[in-house]
Amino acid sequence: MTTHKQIFVNLPCKDLPASKAFFEAMGYGFNPQFTNDKGASLILGDNLFVMLLTRDFAQTFTSKTLPDPKGATTGWVCLSCDSRGEVDELVAKAKAAGATIPSEPQDYGFMYGHGFEDLDGHHWELVYMSGTPPQA
């Protein structure tokens, strides 16, 4: 089985300083070693990072068009939390910092989730797993 030691998710953003301020308001920090005026290394946890990249800089990594995430979903970031309370707290912080809350929380018994769309429209999902899913 193939395994990896770190993950870096790259997300283009229209206004890097505003995006940094948004995530700082949620309590996250940035690695200054990998942060400049073109990108910022958002620290989500041990070995979990999101590179927030200006759209112009992000475009240099692909020949494909970068869709506007406010109008198209090509994927989303899902993060585990330690409790339902942490899920709700982070969604509340995101909303206070300017996020859109596209749906109500979902409770599946073994898993509780809620999410937000950041300033650029990227979808972030937060989940708390309290058990194992029922067998199909």
How would you describe this protein?
With 136 residues, the chain is of the alpha/beta class. The chain has a single domain, classed as 2,3-Dihydroxybiphenyl 1,2-Dioxygenase, domain 1 (Roll), CATH 3.10.180. 21% of the residues lie in helices and 32% in strands. The protein has helices at 16-25, 55-59, 84-96, and strands at residues 7-13, 29-31, 39-45, 48-54, 77-80, 106-107, 111-117, 123-129. The strands form 2 sheets. Strands 1-4-3-2 form a 4-stranded mixed sheet. Strands 5-8-7-6 form a 4-stranded mixed sheet, covered by helices on one side. The longest helix is centred in the middle third of the chain and has 13 residues, at 84-96. The two termini are 25 Å apart. This is Lactoylglutathione lyase. Residues 5-129 form the VOC domain.
Compact description:
This protein has helices at 16-25, 55-59, 84-96, and strands at 7-13, 29-31, 39-45, 48-54, 77-80, 106-107, 111-117, 123-129.
How would you sum up the major sheet?
4 strands, mixed
The assigned CATH architecture is Roll
**What quaternary form is this?**
single chain
> What structural category arises from helix and sheet content?
alpha/beta
Question: What is the CATH class designation?
Answer: Alpha Beta
Please report the number of helical segments. 3
Report how far the terminal alpha carbons are from each other: 25 Å
Number of domains: 1
Keywords: Lyase
Protein name: Lactoylglutathione lyase
GO molecular function, one term: lyase activity
InterPro entries: Glyas_Bleomycin-R_OHBP_Dase, Glyas_Fos-R_dOase_dom, VOC_core
